[in-house]
Amino acid sequence: MFFDTHCHIHMPQFANDQAEVLERMKSAQVTKAVVVATEEAEIAPVLTLARENDGLYAAFAVSPQDEALPDLTEEEIVLRVQDPKMVAVGETGLDYHYCHEPLDWQRNRFATHIRAANLANKPLIIHSREAACDTLDILKANGAQNCGFVLHCFCGDWDFAKKALDLGGYLSFSGIVTFRSALDIQEVARKAPDDRIFIETDSPYLAPVPLRGRRNEPSFVPHVAQFLAQLRGKNIEDIAALTMQNANRFFRI
Ligand SMILES: [Zn+2]
Prior knowledge:
This protein is an alpha/beta fold. The protein has a single domain (2-251), classed as Metal-dependent hydrolases (TIM Barrel, Alpha-Beta Barrel). Helix content is 41%, strand content 18%. The protein contains ten helices and eight strands. It has an eight-stranded parallel beta sheet. Strand 1, helix 1 and strand 2 form a beta-alpha-beta unit. Helix 3 packs across helix 4 (104-120) and helix 4 packs across helix 5 (132-141). It starts with a strand and ends with a helix. The mean pLDDT is 98. The structure holds zinc ion (ZN). Zinc ion binds at residues 6, 8, 36, 91, 202.
Protein backbone atom coordinates (compact mmCIF):
# COMPACT_ATOMS: atom_id res chain seq x y z
CA MET A 1 0.00 0.00 0.00
CA PHE A 2 1.26 3.44 -0.98
CA PHE A 3 0.97 6.94 0.54
CA ASP A 4 0.97 9.85 -1.94
CA THR A 5 2.11 12.56 0.47
CA HIS A 6 1.44 15.53 -1.82
CA CYS A 7 -1.23 16.03 -4.48
CA HIS A 8 -3.70 18.64 -5.72
CA ILE A 9 -6.63 16.52 -6.89
CA HIS A 10 -9.11 19.27 -6.02
CA MET A 11 -7.80 21.34 -8.94
CA PRO A 12 -9.77 22.09 -12.14
CA GLN A 13 -7.66 19.52 -14.04
CA PHE A 14 -9.69 16.85 -12.19
CA ALA A 15 -13.11 18.49 -12.46
CA ASN A 16 -14.44 16.00 -15.00
CA ASP A 17 -13.18 12.72 -13.58
CA GLN A 18 -12.31 13.10 -9.90
CA ALA A 19 -14.39 10.01 -8.98
CA GLU A 20 -12.51 7.88 -11.53
CA VAL A 21 -9.19 9.25 -10.27
CA LEU A 22 -10.13 8.14 -6.74
CA GLU A 23 -11.20 4.71 -8.07
CA ARG A 24 -7.90 4.23 -9.92
CA MET A 25 -6.05 5.29 -6.78
CA LYS A 26 -7.76 2.47 -4.86
CA SER A 27 -7.05 -0.07 -7.59
CA ALA A 28 -3.38 0.91 -7.53
CA GLN A 29 -3.25 0.30 -3.72
CA VAL A 30 -2.61 3.98 -3.05
CA THR A 31 -4.57 4.02 0.19
CA LYS A 32 -3.55 7.42 1.53
CA ALA A 33 -2.90 10.91 0.17
CA VAL A 34 -2.50 14.46 1.44
CA VAL A 35 -4.39 16.99 -0.70
CA VAL A 36 -2.74 20.40 -0.52
CA ALA A 37 -4.63 23.71 -0.67
CA THR A 38 -2.51 26.70 -1.69
CA GLU A 39 -5.03 29.48 -1.11
CA GLU A 40 -7.96 30.11 1.21
CA ALA A 41 -10.60 29.43 -1.45
CA GLU A 42 -9.27 25.86 -1.77
CA ILE A 43 -9.66 24.97 1.91
CA ALA A 44 -13.34 24.01 1.65
CA PRO A 45 -13.03 21.69 -1.38
CA VAL A 46 -9.92 20.04 0.05
CA LEU A 47 -11.55 19.44 3.44
CA THR A 48 -14.68 18.07 1.77
CA LEU A 49 -12.55 15.57 -0.14
CA ALA A 50 -10.74 14.57 3.06
CA ARG A 51 -13.95 14.17 5.05
CA GLU A 52 -15.73 12.13 2.39
CA ASN A 53 -12.88 9.75 1.61
CA ASP A 54 -11.09 7.50 4.06
CA GLY A 55 -7.35 7.86 3.63
CA LEU A 56 -7.46 11.40 2.25
CA TYR A 57 -6.05 14.21 4.39
CA ALA A 58 -5.67 17.97 3.91
CA ALA A 59 -2.99 20.63 4.29
CA PHE A 60 -3.08 24.39 3.83
CA ALA A 61 -0.76 27.36 3.48
CA VAL A 62 -0.72 30.49 1.37
CA SER A 63 1.30 29.69 -1.76
CA PRO A 64 4.91 30.88 -1.81
CA GLN A 65 4.60 31.50 -5.56
CA ASP A 66 1.78 34.05 -5.59
CA GLU A 67 2.51 37.48 -4.16
CA ALA A 68 -1.01 38.68 -4.99
CA LEU A 69 -2.61 36.35 -2.42
CA PRO A 70 -3.32 38.14 0.86
CA ASP A 71 -0.99 37.27 3.74
CA LEU A 72 -2.46 35.71 6.87
CA THR A 73 -1.28 36.21 10.44
CA GLU A 74 0.01 33.32 12.55
CA GLU A 75 -3.29 33.19 14.42
CA GLU A 76 -5.30 33.13 11.18
CA ILE A 77 -3.23 30.22 9.87
CA VAL A 78 -3.60 28.32 13.15
CA LEU A 79 -7.40 28.67 12.93
CA ARG A 80 -7.46 27.35 9.37
CA VAL A 81 -5.56 24.16 10.22
CA GLN A 82 -7.54 23.26 13.34
CA ASP A 83 -9.65 20.57 11.65
CA PRO A 84 -8.45 17.04 12.60
CA LYS A 85 -8.27 16.20 8.87
CA MET A 86 -5.74 19.07 8.42
CA VAL A 87 -2.48 17.21 9.00
CA ALA A 88 0.08 19.88 8.06
CA VAL A 89 0.83 23.53 7.36
CA GLY A 90 1.99 23.77 3.75
CA GLU A 91 3.04 24.07 1.19
CA THR A 92 5.12 27.05 2.24
CA GLY A 93 8.71 28.00 1.50
CA LEU A 94 10.79 29.83 -1.08
CA ASP A 95 10.81 29.79 -4.85
CA TYR A 96 13.64 31.71 -6.50
CA HIS A 97 13.00 30.03 -9.85
CA TYR A 98 9.59 31.50 -10.65
CA CYS A 99 9.86 34.56 -8.41
CA HIS A 100 12.53 37.24 -8.41
CA GLU A 101 13.88 39.76 -5.89
CA PRO A 102 12.76 41.72 -4.00
CA LEU A 103 11.35 38.68 -2.20
CA ASP A 104 11.00 39.87 1.39
CA TRP A 105 7.26 39.13 1.06
CA GLN A 106 8.13 35.48 0.39
CA ARG A 107 10.61 35.16 3.27
CA ASN A 108 8.21 36.87 5.70
CA ARG A 109 5.30 34.68 4.60
CA PHE A 110 7.47 31.58 5.04
CA ALA A 111 8.60 32.59 8.56
CA THR A 112 5.00 33.31 9.60
CA HIS A 113 3.92 29.85 8.42
CA ILE A 114 6.71 28.18 10.42
CA ARG A 115 5.70 30.00 13.59
CA ALA A 116 2.05 29.09 12.94
CA ALA A 117 2.93 25.41 12.51
CA ASN A 118 4.65 25.45 15.89
CA LEU A 119 1.65 27.15 17.50
CA ALA A 120 -0.75 24.68 15.87
CA ASN A 121 1.57 21.77 16.64
CA LYS A 122 1.40 20.46 13.06
CA PRO A 123 4.32 19.59 10.76
CA LEU A 124 5.37 21.70 7.76
CA ILE A 125 5.36 20.87 4.06
CA ILE A 126 8.14 22.92 2.45
CA HIS A 127 8.45 24.00 -1.17
CA SER A 128 12.03 25.06 -1.92
CA ARG A 129 13.34 25.83 -5.37
CA GLU A 130 16.79 27.34 -6.04
CA ALA A 131 16.74 28.71 -2.51
CA ALA A 132 18.52 26.08 -0.41
CA CYS A 133 20.57 28.41 1.84
CA ASP A 134 17.75 30.80 2.67
CA THR A 135 15.34 27.89 3.19
CA LEU A 136 17.64 26.30 5.78
CA ASP A 137 18.35 29.64 7.50
CA ILE A 138 14.67 30.52 7.83
CA LEU A 139 13.71 27.00 8.94
CA LYS A 140 16.36 27.14 11.68
CA ALA A 141 15.70 30.73 12.76
CA ASN A 142 11.99 30.02 13.28
CA GLY A 143 12.28 26.67 15.03
CA ALA A 144 11.01 24.32 12.31
CA GLN A 145 12.96 21.53 14.04
CA ASN A 146 10.28 21.57 16.75
CA CYS A 147 7.17 20.91 14.63
CA GLY A 148 9.05 18.92 11.96
CA PHE A 149 9.21 19.48 8.20
CA VAL A 150 9.43 17.73 4.87
CA LEU A 151 11.11 19.14 1.76
CA HIS A 152 8.41 18.17 -0.72
CA CYS A 153 9.19 17.37 -4.36
CA PHE A 154 12.85 17.42 -3.40
CA CYS A 155 14.99 18.85 -6.17
CA GLY A 156 18.30 19.83 -4.58
CA ASP A 157 21.69 18.18 -4.13
CA TRP A 158 23.14 16.01 -1.35
CA ASP A 159 24.63 19.00 0.49
CA PHE A 160 21.16 20.58 0.87
CA ALA A 161 19.58 17.21 1.72
CA LYS A 162 22.19 16.43 4.36
CA LYS A 163 21.72 19.81 6.09
CA ALA A 164 17.94 19.33 6.10
CA LEU A 165 18.29 15.78 7.45
CA ASP A 166 20.61 17.09 10.19
CA LEU A 167 17.79 19.45 11.22
CA GLY A 168 15.48 16.44 11.56
CA GLY A 169 13.76 17.02 8.21
CA TYR A 170 12.24 14.49 5.81
CA LEU A 171 12.65 14.36 2.01
CA SER A 172 9.80 13.60 -0.38
CA PHE A 173 10.51 12.35 -3.90
CA SER A 174 8.19 13.04 -6.84
CA GLY A 175 8.24 11.94 -10.48
CA ILE A 176 11.23 14.25 -11.02
CA VAL A 177 13.53 11.62 -9.49
CA THR A 178 12.67 9.30 -12.41
CA PHE A 179 13.80 11.83 -15.05
CA ARG A 180 17.01 10.87 -16.82
CA SER A 181 18.73 14.19 -16.12
CA ALA A 182 17.96 14.17 -12.36
CA LEU A 183 21.34 12.77 -11.29
CA ASP A 184 21.72 14.96 -8.17
CA ILE A 185 18.26 14.02 -6.94
CA GLN A 186 18.92 10.34 -7.66
CA GLU A 187 22.09 10.55 -5.56
CA VAL A 188 20.03 11.95 -2.67
CA ALA A 189 17.36 9.28 -3.18
CA ARG A 190 20.08 6.62 -2.91
CA LYS A 191 21.77 8.03 0.20
CA ALA A 192 18.88 9.30 2.34
CA PRO A 193 18.15 7.15 5.40
CA ASP A 194 15.26 4.65 5.26
CA ASP A 195 13.34 6.45 7.99
CA ARG A 196 13.34 9.91 6.36
CA ILE A 197 11.87 9.45 2.88
CA PHE A 198 8.38 9.85 1.40
CA ILE A 199 6.93 9.47 -2.07
CA GLU A 200 4.48 11.83 -3.76
CA THR A 201 3.01 12.77 -7.12
CA ASP A 202 2.49 16.57 -6.80
CA SER A 203 -0.30 15.77 -9.28
CA PRO A 204 -1.50 17.12 -11.66
CA TYR A 205 2.14 18.04 -12.35
CA LEU A 206 5.33 16.03 -12.93
CA ALA A 207 4.11 12.59 -13.97
CA PRO A 208 6.86 9.98 -13.47
CA VAL A 209 8.56 8.03 -16.25
CA PRO A 210 7.07 6.09 -18.12
CA LEU A 211 4.03 8.39 -17.98
CA ARG A 212 5.97 11.65 -18.26
CA GLY A 213 4.02 14.42 -19.99
CA ARG A 214 0.59 13.13 -19.02
CA ARG A 215 -1.62 14.63 -16.34
CA ASN A 216 -0.33 13.12 -13.10
CA GLU A 217 -2.59 11.49 -10.48
CA PRO A 218 -2.13 9.56 -7.20
CA SER A 219 -2.43 6.15 -8.91
CA PHE A 220 0.93 6.90 -10.60
CA VAL A 221 2.90 7.09 -7.32
CA PRO A 222 3.94 3.40 -7.42
CA HIS A 223 6.20 4.34 -10.37
CA VAL A 224 8.15 6.60 -8.00
CA ALA A 225 8.35 3.79 -5.44
CA GLN A 226 9.56 1.38 -8.13
CA PHE A 227 12.30 3.78 -9.16
CA LEU A 228 13.44 4.28 -5.55
CA ALA A 229 13.42 0.51 -5.09
CA GLN A 230 15.86 0.11 -8.00
CA LEU A 231 18.09 2.94 -6.76
CA ARG A 232 18.21 1.56 -3.23
CA GLY A 233 18.47 -2.15 -4.10
CA LYS A 234 15.20 -3.05 -2.43
CA ASN A 235 11.88 -4.34 -3.67
CA ILE A 236 8.89 -2.09 -4.20
CA GLU A 237 7.01 -3.60 -1.24
CA ASP A 238 9.81 -2.50 1.11
CA ILE A 239 9.75 1.05 -0.26
CA ALA A 240 5.95 1.15 0.00
CA ALA A 241 6.06 -0.04 3.61
CA LEU A 242 8.80 2.26 4.83
CA THR A 243 7.48 5.39 3.11
CA MET A 244 4.00 4.59 4.51
CA GLN A 245 5.41 4.22 8.04
CA ASN A 246 7.43 7.42 7.74
CA ALA A 247 4.48 9.48 6.48
CA ASN A 248 2.12 8.10 9.13
CA ARG A 249 4.62 9.05 11.84
CA PHE A 250 5.25 12.51 10.37
CA PHE A 251 1.58 13.43 9.79
CA ARG A 252 0.57 11.69 13.06
CA ILE A 253 -2.01 9.52 11.36
ZN1 LIG B 1 2.28 21.14 -4.58
